[in-house]
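USER:
I wish I could look at a protein chain and see how it folds. I am handing you a single protein, as its sequence and its fold in token form. As I understand it, each token names a local backbone shape. I hope you can help me see how the letters and the tokens relate. The protein I mean follows directly.
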Amino acid sequence: MKANKIQTKVYKRECNELEILIFYRMILQRISRHLSPEEVSFLMGKPLDFMSKVERFRIKKIFIQDVVVMHRALAVNSINSLMHLGEDISSQDNAYELHVTKLADRVIYEMYKVDVKQDQKIKEFKLIDIRHDIDPYTNSTTEEVKKIRILLDEQIDAGYFSEERIAYEIHNLCCEKLEKYIQPKNLMLVLDELLQGNEERRIVRKETGYGFGYVLATHAKST
């Protein structure tokens, strides 16, 4: 048996403990729901690389509004699950390193606080995610995409997209109508198809005050 090919990348930044705690809880909520960074970004109405940038420290400032949007999009029971409220946390900036190791079937996230004076690294947390670019359920995925495609065609005919619809709102509708949890990546695939549809049935993706929304092209100018 071949050994897993290990690929580790290290991302560095300086920030305070509260920012790392929020970062930890955001990535924990994503991983615990078995969602990819792209799927979470999609449900939040953000550019699809938003969560990847957050998790690679390319977006260094996480705004409270982003936390609230994630709370709403993922239907997190309590905002406290994403934020530490009322706790005594140091405001001093520290150096941190995030080590991301990609294996054949999983990705490992290890966060370290770097103590320069003591010349040591203190592990803050370790999280293990699945590889979202590997689909072991190709047959069920194909079937689910077909059901979503039929449902959204019906919703177009019923006038559902005559007004802007936020991604998580469409996702909730699909889960309700199909009576099962729908993988956001499969909904993304069908919506991408509709973005390329003919003029009468084409959906457009436009920025709204709540993030990116989807609306019929023929109604886009009037919304």
